[in-house]
Specification:
- This protein has about 375 residues and is an alpha/beta fold.
- The chain has two domains: about 120 residues, Enolase-like, N-terminal domain (Enolase-like, domain 1), CATH 3.30.390; about 230 residues, Alpha-Beta Barrel (TIM Barrel), CATH 3.20.20.120.
- Helix content is about 40%, strand content about 20%.
- It contains 14 helices and twelve strands.
- The protein has a seven-stranded parallel β-sheet with strand order 5-6-7-8-9-10-11. Strands 1-2-3 form a three-stranded antiparallel β-sheet. Strands 4-12 form a two-stranded antiparallel sheet.
- It starts with a strand and ends with a helix.
């Protein structure tokens, strides 16, 4: 079997409301679909998530990169020989893990379909236990406490028992605390909270406020300090009564070794969309396990394609917390058939081969950019 063609399709699905966090304002899902075709008639689907705050690239740049450089480099290769495909991609451009990760996910989809098995099985996982969901959707963005409570209750009304809240509001930590306290009061002690500061705190503010958040049932604090301040993160971790997760500080398996050496975190938020798809993230998960670090699976602002890949990844590891679930929590539509509802409490993976999702090509045509 050989790769015979690679289709690159940019699309845009509007959000119902603008989503704001410390470093980014999102009004839509702006991503790129990668469709790998083979001479055996087997096709695979992947997705490149484009968020300028994280990977410094916009949708148009990723589309050109994939179409002009990466796609031609892999034509004629065996999709089962993923290491060779990566060598070819690395040979034409350095870095650019989100774009390469889209190809990697599509390759895994091809392999699963060719073998007639789901990716969770190919990755050595199981679907006996559903993948838990961290809600609501992609987390509670910047909003007033009353609106945050309303959104959180939508999640727990469907059975979700994990809530993420975005912190680092321009008004300061007092605003963050008001939101956290209101959500905790509304949801009760059985619902655990995670905050994502997105590099938005100083050491002084983090030292003051994280213990206050812990008293409101915040179990995890993600990326409280700027990504390069690992030594300060290590000092902070020893002084606060909750767990520290890192995201922006990690871009490759080698970064995990530095984090572990410094004792800078309890876990790593591993996003397939940003770190190179399933191949690279399985490597990162293995290093985390060896280093005694938890893995928090994620995907960022993906459609049902990218999220399906994240769910298979979560089923193949031992996740420390739930995963994102459905783009419908934020966006007006999805581009797969039979998408997940906006606020599920868990995801039950099936035995369908590959990613286990079917793209709605009429929807893709509708939202094509």
């Amino acid at each position: 079997m050989k790769i015979s063609a690679v289709d690159v399709i940019a699309y845009r699905i509007p959000n119902r409301e603008v989503h704001r966090i410390a470093t980014l304002t999102l009004s839509a899902i702006d991503n790129v679909i990668v469709r790998i075709r083979t001479d055996a008639g087997v096709e695979g689907i992947g997705e490149c998530v484009t968020e300028a705050k994280w990977n410094s690239s916009v949708m148009e740049a990723h589309a050109v990169l994939l179409q002009k450089y990466l796609a031609p480099a892999i034509i004629g290769t065996d999709p089962f020989r993923i290491r060779e495909v990566w060598a070819r991609m690395d040979g034409v451009v350095n870095g650019q893990l989100p774009a390469k990760g889209a190809i990697d996910i599509a390759l895994h989809d091809v392999i699963g379909k060719a073998l007639g098995i789901p990716l969770w099985r190919f990755l050595g996982g199981s679907n006996e236990t559903p993948v838990l969901v961290e809600g609501p959707g992609y987390g509670i963005g910047f909003m007033r406490p009353e609106a945050a409570v309303e959104l959180a209750l939508k999640g727990i009304s469907e059975g979700c028992r994990q809530i993420e809240i975005k912190c680092g509001h321009p008004s300061g930590p007092e605003h963050d605390y008001a939101v956290i306290a209101a959500v905790h009061r509304a949801c009760g002690p059985e619902v655990s909270l995670k905050i994502d500061c997105t590099e938005g705190y100083t050491f002084k503010d983090a030292l003051k406020y994280l213990p206050l958040y812990a008293a409101q049932n915040v179990v995890w604090a993600e990326q409280p300090l700027p990504r390069h301040e690992l030594r300060s993160m290590s000092r902070l971790r020893a002084l606060v009564p909750l767990k520290i997760a890192l995201e922006e500080s990690v871009g490759a398996p080698a970064d995990i070794l530095r984090v572990a050496e410094l004792g800078a975190a309890d876990g790593i938020h591993v996003k397939l969309a940003m770190l190179g798809g399933l191949s690279k993230c399985m490597q990162i998960a293995a290093v985390c396990e060896a280093a005694g670090l938890d893995v928090l699976p994620g995907c960022s602002t993906a459609s049902g394609i990218g999220l399906a890949a994240a769910h298979h990844f979560a089923a193949a590891i031992r996740p420390a917390r739930g995963c994102h679930a459905s783009p419908l929590a934020r966006a007006v539509d999805d581009i797969i058939k039979d998408p997940l509802p906006p606020y599920p409490a868990e995801v039950k993976l099936t035995d369908a081969p590959g990613l286990g999702v079917e793209v709605d090509w009429d929807k893709v045509a509708k939202y094509r950019d």
